[in-house]
UniProtKB/TrEMBL annotation:
PROSITE patterns: CN_HYDROLASE. Gene3D superfamilies: Carbon-nitrogen hydrolase. Residues 11-264 form the CN hydrolase domain. This is Carbon-nitrogen hydrolase. Keywords: Hydrolase. One of its GO terms (molecular function) is hydrolase activity. It comes from the Bacteria. CDD domains: CPA.
Length: 295
């Protein structure tokens, strides 16, 4: 059972920053071992990196790679349900979902601490860049922005490219999220790193820290590490609090279990003194649903 017990509104979370291990079974075994380590250290909510049991296959367009997809719920979520119930932890697992022939999603499954499958989120924003050929593989999500009231707190999950969109974080927070998890696979391409590497990483981290402030919530981003093809994943998984302060940050190169304690009572106190939601002028935002405000 969990070693971390508290009567306060504190929750300990863990982010599993890892490398691809060579096969789906090896990735699953590796991740379950890391979940056990995190739980033994007191973690209560544990989140994987994006597409944790596959390589980051979106570097190229290859129809055969659709064979990596699986139904959700399915065998992987069932294995994680057993682990969640045994350890008494909430698990957020990012997977490649096969919905139907020709329809596939980048999806995160949420499992509560009693082993119940609570549901899934399908990535809404799909990028298309050199080395990130995701529009070839993923149908945009259609389940909306979801929040789950888990044993240890109200959480939402957004995925990687969703990180750049303040609307997504806002929708999650308005639905009650206290912690937003972002399973991620982002890194440097060799032709860009020298000139843009620092700027790219700074933008990635800063925009998410801004989401934490604007929405009065914790943000937890969990990235890959290591090199796959030409992509050097930059690791540096982190947790930011509701002031945008970095609570914990992982290194660039290493596999790492990032642990952070989130104070949900302090979060509520902050929302009381900075009541951003109260002061929203919802009557003035109609144009945000337009592609551009140019006519």
């Amino acid at each position: 059972m969990n070693a971390f017990q508290s009567n306060s509104r504190k929750v300990r979370i863990a982010l599993i920053q890892g490398r691809e291990q060579g096969s789906a079974q090896a990735d699953l075994d590796y991740t379950i071992d890391r979940i056990r380590e995190a739980a033994n250290a007191g973690a209560q909510i544990i989140c994987t990196q994006e597409l944790f049991n596959t390589p980051y296959f979106c570097r190229t367009q290859d129809p055969d790679l659709f064979d990596l997809a699986e139904p959700i719920p399915g065998a992987t979520t069932q294995a994680l349900e057993v682990v969640a119930a045994e350890l008494g932890v909430v698990i957020v697992a990012s997977l490649f979902e096969r919905r139907a022939a020709g329809v596939y999603h980048n999806t995160a499954a949420v499992i509560d601490a009693d082993g119940r499958y609570l549901g899934k989120y399908r990535k809404m924003h799909i990028p298309q860049d050199p080395g990130f050929e995701e529009k070839f593989y993923f149908t945009p999500g259609d389940l909306g922005y979801k929040v789950w009231d888990t044993k240890f707190g109200k959480i939402s999950v957004l995925i990687c490219w969703d990180q750049w969109y303040p609307e997504a974080a806002r929708m999650a927070a308005l639905a009650g999220a206290e912690i937003i998890f972002y399973p991620t696979a982002i890194g440097w391409l060799p032709e860009e790193k020298a000139e843009l590497g620092v700027a790219q990483h700074t933008a990635w981290e800063m925009v998410q820290r801004g989401h934490a402030v604007a929405n009065g919530c914790y943000v937890a981003a969990v990235n890959r590490t290591g090199v796959e093809g030409d992509t050097e994943f930059w690791g540096q998984s982190f947790v930011a609090d509701f002031y945008g302060q970095i609570v914990e940050r992982a290194p660039v190169e290493n596999e790492y279990i990032l642990m952070a304690d989130c104070d949900l009572k302090a979060l509520e106190d902050m929302r009381r003194i900075w009541p951003f939601f109260r002061d929203r002028r919802i009557d003035s935002y109609a144009n945000v649903t337009k592609r551009m405000i140019d006519e």
